[in-house]
Known about the structure:
- The protein has 443 residues and is of the alpha/beta class.
- It has a domain at 82-186 and 202-226 and 243-337: Aspartate Aminotransferase, domain 2.
- The protein is built from twelve helices and 15 strands.
- The chain has helices spanning 24-37, 82-92, 104-114, 130-145, 162-165, 196-213, 241-249, 302-311, 322-337, 340-361, 390-402, 427-442; strands spanning 51-55, 58-61, 66-69, 123-127, 149-153, 181-184, 218-224, 253-257, 282-285, 296-300, 365-371, 374-379, 405-406, 408-410, 416-419.
- It has a seven-stranded mixed sheet with strand order 4-10-9-8-7-5-6, with helices on both faces. A four-stranded mixed sheet has the order 1-2-3-13. A four-stranded antiparallel sheet has the order 11-12-15-14.
- Helix 5 links the parallel strand 5 and strand 6 (181-184).
- Helix 10 (340-361) packs parallel to helix 12 (427-442).
- It starts with 23 loop residues before the first helix and ends with a helix.
- Residues 1-9 have low confidence and may be disordered.
Amino acid sequence: MSDRPALPGQMPNAFVPGQGNLSAEDQALVARRQAAMGPAYRLFYETPVHLVRGEGVWLYDAEGQAYLDTYNNVASVGHCHPRVVAAMARQAAVFASHTRYLHEGILAYSERLLGLFPPALSHVMFTCTGSEANDLALRIAEAHTGGTGIIVTENAYHGVTRAIAAMSPSLGAGVALGGALRVVPAPDPLRLEGDLGQAFAGHVQAAIDDMVAKGIKPAALIVDTIFSSDGVFADPKGFLAPAVAEIREAGGLFIADEVQPGFGRTGEAMWGFERHGLLPDMVTLGKPMGNGYPVAAVVMRPDVVAEFGARARYFNTFGGNAVAAATANAVLDVIEDEGLLENSRVVGARLRQGLEELARRHESLGPIRSAGLFVGAEIVAGGDPLAADAGFAARVVNRLREARVLISATGPRANVLKIRPPLVFSAENAELFLDRLDTALAR
Length: 443
């Protein structure tokens, strides 16, 4: 098992108050923010961006300058997509209430959403955020298995509720992990020897053995199926299967966290777990589901939720409300009507090809890992793929921000460029991004 990364409450690429090239007006905004919102929030970039408007893949600052968004998967079908905004406004003007009343909208969406999953996953429960979805999945897993032991990867992020923050090592050393949690190394092909699937499964089995030795019953293995906070690990397809077999042999469940890779992001299928040929016991959904409107869900096998449902009633005032259902349904309309799954596959392939071409010319650009429009690109020193260079990664991120391209970094060593644009990202957008990254790497 891996030690927890020692990240001191700070995130990669965070603004440091008192630094940066802020205008007097933006310095005043920062001061107001600190006074009103307190010390726990963070801003991106050495010089934060003051945004006022979004459209498609573009975000606009207070001076009207356009920034290419290659990071924000919350607006999965593009910022302020007119069809999504219209559906949201239309329903808000008619009826906006919760799931304790009969209403066709939430049922129509539930049936449509479930139709995108394997038939065995035939129940759905709604929340407002991915954090809540993972929290609910954890409660259901514990009720179903009678266990409390959870396994996550070394730099995982699954949310910010008290229970889920305690199983999100990427939040840093200032957030205590749960006593029944076990942390395993991410499936990093650079650092795990031999067959990746077997190596990862071996660490999961070691975590299970340690739990059992200490009297902890395993409840679940939960992974983000693209391992985004760990540095983006997509291949080889199927490598997750041996680890899932180990947790099930121990009586636990497999929870696929699809908050980031879901809804067509990986290009080949709607859900990241499908690339591994797996049937999860539960799937959690979030951010991209409503294109910015707060809607999330847990999809599961009926038998998994049976014990929980018999003992505890579930209610979430805003989870599954009528406006959320209409908004989320419009997102599916756009994904289907605009061919965004195929766009993710085609443009994602071109983006990866372009990055690999850049890597042949810039020794600082190391291994490229991707699936569709989800890309992780290592920044390394001296061309050595194992020599992570977080300092240069931060400089590249900020040089791109100066060139009005928004990106961030991730991974336990803070050296992986995280490239995750809205699904409407075009080939022309990809060429612009590659050109500006080329310049940033060369400076």
